[in-house]
User: Fold this.
Amino acid sequence: MIFGTKKGTPIIFPGTGTGGWESALTNTLSPGDKVLTFRYGQFSHLWVDMMQRMGLDVEVIECEWGEGADEERLAAALKKDTHKKIKAVCVVHNETTTGVTSDIAGVRAAMEGASHPALLLVDGVSSIGALDFQFDKWGVDVAVTGSQKALSLPTGLTVLAVSDKALASRAAAGSKRCYYDWADQLATNPAGSVPYTPSIPLLYGMQASLDLLKAEGMANVVARHARLAEGTRRAAAAWGLDLLCKHPRWRSDSLTVINAPAGIDSNLIVQEAYRRYNLSIGVGLSKVNGKVFRIGHLGNCDEVMQASALAGTEMALLSVGAKITPGAGVGAAIKYWAETSKVIPTR
Amino acid sequence: MIFGTKKGTPIIFPGTGTGGWESALTNTLSPGDKVLTFRYGQFSHLWVDMMQRMGLDVEVIECEWGEGADEERLAAALKKDTHKKIKAVCVVHNETTTGVTSDIAGVRAAMEGASHPALLLVDGVSSIGALDFQFDKWGVDVAVTGSQKALSLPTGLTVLAVSDKALASRAAAGSKRCYYDWADQLATNPAGSVPYTPSIPLLYGMQASLDLLKAEGMANVVARHARLAEGTRRAAAAWGLDLLCKHPRWRSDSLTVINAPAGIDSNLIVQEAYRRYNLSIGVGLSKVNGKVFRIGHLGNCDEVMQASALAGTEMALLSVGAKITPGAGVGAAIKYWAETSKVIPTR
Amino acid sequence: MIFGTKKGTPIIFPGTGTGGWESALTNTLSPGDKVLTFRYGQFSHLWVDMMQRMGLDVEVIECEWGEGADEERLAAALKKDTHKKIKAVCVVHNETTTGVTSDIAGVRAAMEGASHPALLLVDGVSSIGALDFQFDKWGVDVAVTGSQKALSLPTGLTVLAVSDKALASRAAAGSKRCYYDWADQLATNPAGSVPYTPSIPLLYGMQASLDLLKAEGMANVVARHARLAEGTRRAAAAWGLDLLCKHPRWRSDSLTVINAPAGIDSNLIVQEAYRRYNLSIGVGLSKVNGKVFRIGHLGNCDEVMQASALAGTEMALLSVGAKITPGAGVGAAIKYWAETSKVIPTR
Amino acid sequence: MIFGTKKGTPIIFPGTGTGGWESALTNTLSPGDKVLTFRYGQFSHLWVDMMQRMGLDVEVIECEWGEGADEERLAAALKKDTHKKIKAVCVVHNETTTGVTSDIAGVRAAMEGASHPALLLVDGVSSIGALDFQFDKWGVDVAVTGSQKALSLPTGLTVLAVSDKALASRAAAGSKRCYYDWADQLATNPAGSVPYTPSIPLLYGMQASLDLLKAEGMANVVARHARLAEGTRRAAAAWGLDLLCKHPRWRSDSLTVINAPAGIDSNLIVQEAYRRYNLSIGVGLSKVNGKVFRIGHLGNCDEVMQASALAGTEMALLSVGAKITPGAGVGAAIKYWAETSKVIPTR
Assistant:
């Protein structure tokens, strides 16, 4: 349901999204295989690092942090690959470092434009179940997510959808694998079994979580995330702060990454939120550390919870001496949410 | 600890605050005994009703809803009681209908001024554990609270502190009683036992809850409630709305009761908060129904949670067409909290 | 469902079975009213004590502990009451002190035999939901139970079924009452409300508990308790120990009370079970203290759980030097259960 | 504490014991490296399978199922390895398929006898935290366990202890690895961090679990498992059934694997236990399927719980027509436990 697929094969491992990445690579590729990917944040960077450690020949399209998967540069890179040596295109759908959501349909279009047969492997850890995701329609070959993001569960499951093409590539994939080998899952799951001890509580939890999403309806879930995100962006604007995400088309609806006011270390804002107001917001990771802070809005979350995060952030901004009008940010969000609110169907 | 007593005897019943009231009356009084009390809200009204049903001769000082225990009227009533027929003065410390906290020290002073020997029975259900309470210093004879307010537990325990004088009055108290008889508790508790099946989970819960309050320190707990309340009052002022509570000295730090904007049914505000924003705020009870709404701020609660309630209320006010500036109320609270914030000691 | 009634009115109070008793008395009777009851254990004794403290004129049919409600003695007492002064007959259905289940249908028959109009008030705390109970068919007027027995919940709710006749008696009932007054429940429940703060977690819990009983089917629930009880009785026989319950017709299916071996203090058995084997079985209460021990088998319980209790008891018996063959008791139960077992329907 | 090490480095991954195996191999070895191991059950078989899939050159000492790590055969194999090509000896400490506990001290002695420098990698999934384990004393290089066995937690953590020698081997280990790479843990753990999202609930759970084990004392924990196991073995003997484990020295104290009576399919016993008595015991895996059944006794477990399992098994044996005396098995266990019981220190 959350993957938007009727054709893909679901596979669940006890592990994290990082394990899902590894699984996507080792089951479809061999050491030495060429892959094409983007680096525009810490998570895409870590995936690149993993690809290299797994012995792949990685071509990285380097982007500024705050950009997404640029379809033109992708098309150009694919075009240069006249011998179709690139076996897979790997894209982080929603980059949690920068608040950037790339356009997977656009990526697929670029691949089709180049008539390129590579697999399309997508990290949907912080998007699937919260943002629109169309596995079948977008022609995704492997999509990876985890239990601890849009599913609002503890960490411990990584969940994949796999296309028939990706399954077929497994036979020739020479990467060593065992724990994250699809084969053992595929061999046992049809009989209702698993290859090694599963996490029963998380499987029950996932069932409950999917029931909640189903009851709300995925279209409504996606719309809710969009509403929460737009309120958060309006708050940032009212604080006079820019988003790290360069272009409106890439702005993430699952988290918003905001540039700290000039001259203020963003770590201090995060620290004050925690120390004074008992609120956890995200620091800037790696090369944007000190420059941005991150506010999440995915999973089981509504307007008043988000207002809580905005209010705490606003207080933290005041505590570090930012020149903002108290209430400006929360007020902008409130205005937007009140103007666009609907009655909750069950009320 | 939460009662502010070293001399009082604690008694715990499986029941609610209403049961604690009954216990306070039946263990100290006989049908026909005269009691003096105030009526200034639904809870003081219900206690008056109980007194009458228990066959007591109740003299009620009728007040406007929004007022507290007026010490002068109390003094006058006691003065008239030249034969000292009044056996007990019953006061609701914090009236949850109106957001009024009466001054129990002042009540005791009035009783002393009249050299009156009546017992002082206090309903502290929505105050004890959140607001300052000095059982010994204020000369309280019976104080009643419950598990579901400041202790942040489910409903199911009523907890009393009882003075030696109140205990001594038990022998002559002719009211029929059994379930809520102190005698059975007093007979069994010293040996670590109870007269009938206890609620073990709630007793463990209370221990945990008291540990949290102790770790924070009661003075800090009281200060936290004062901060949350002041922020809420500033929000109301920024919305241009009056409090039901007439006089600043009586304003409650555990909940705030706000008059609806002119021409707007307060039930509609509460309804919209629930229907559109998934927020539960309190309706006006009984004779202030439709006129006021209530925002709580007691128990395990901090600034960002309270901001959440204020933001939701503000959105509901906007949804019913109140003429307010989005962000004005939350902004006023945020400003106050940010200006007066301290680092949480454990951070 | 558990009461076996379609006509009775259900009433739920936050409190315990003891509160349910009080409620049954104060809502139907006036101080000075005559009531007829039996004393054959600690719980019937405590209810007698409550009746006396509530000012009722209590006629007690004194029985040996281990006997139940003797219908002939009841008939005789009712016959003597030529002026029909007895307002209520009060019977403990299942006496948890002695493991005796009285025959409520027989009690009603005796009342009908004497054409007596008294109300029939029944304590079903440790029977209803586990043993067969037919409120309508047996002509019960008030039946009382609690959340912590057959419903397998924490303590904190007392649940009543009330006949129209009992409801009608309320108007004339002069006992002072407030917390446990039916009136406030009857006035508010039809609108889905309650007169004072309810225990929400326990109400959800009760719903879940009733769902489980419903899924199993009450006839199956009753049969399960009978099976567990019979196994326990066979274990006692195999240990060479007598039951406290004198007559087979009165043997309880919700707990079994067993006489300690000659010369052995039963408290020691209970103590050794706890100290050495981490097992809680019941001491003998009041006048059978030291003489009997009690093994429960009601609520969410099956054969292997019960085997666990029997094994622990057997080890404790061995530890105190009882002359028994290891495995004899558990073996007798196992033999019976294995011979009579059925496949669980959902398996 | 549970590893018996002061020198080893602890590493925790979100994953299962299977992941721990992989981690032990990929961080110390390169494809093509020679390893020596035993196959005497399904879990040792699966580890062999993993070694082969990871590209290792695996020399397997094939044993009958029911045997443990034979030190003489190990010594012989090591002796033949004159060029010290064997890089690691891999041993499953407690084989959960067969109820066999191998002697790791003996394994180390055999390695020392051969003056062999290979690493000693040990699967302690179903032993560590329940059985005696001496990482330092036995010279173990990598020991692997999981959260869901002796720690009595849900599945989801694999926990390792790693010797300095094993850590040092990492640099040269050419196996591709990323998710289960020690390097990322070693780089982040000292600063209190982790390389990717951890399972916070399980980490808290492990702390609680270790607190319980510490309070009991590891020597007492080991003794408790030995007591439970001996009772279970006596039950099997009283049923006239043999253990799959050939030699007394190898009998596991964390689970017991019992041969089904002649002519009876062990799956039927397991099925009847589940269908009739709501008890889950283990089927025989792989080549002993149908021939044995398995009864666990590790983790948070005591005599009455174990009696419950034995009673249910006994009933299931009766249900499938085994010729046993009801109570014989449980009785033998009870006799042993009662004769050897001690007072629980906290009672």
Notes: Chain D has a mean pLDDT of 97. Residues 218-238 of chain D form the longest helix (21 residues).
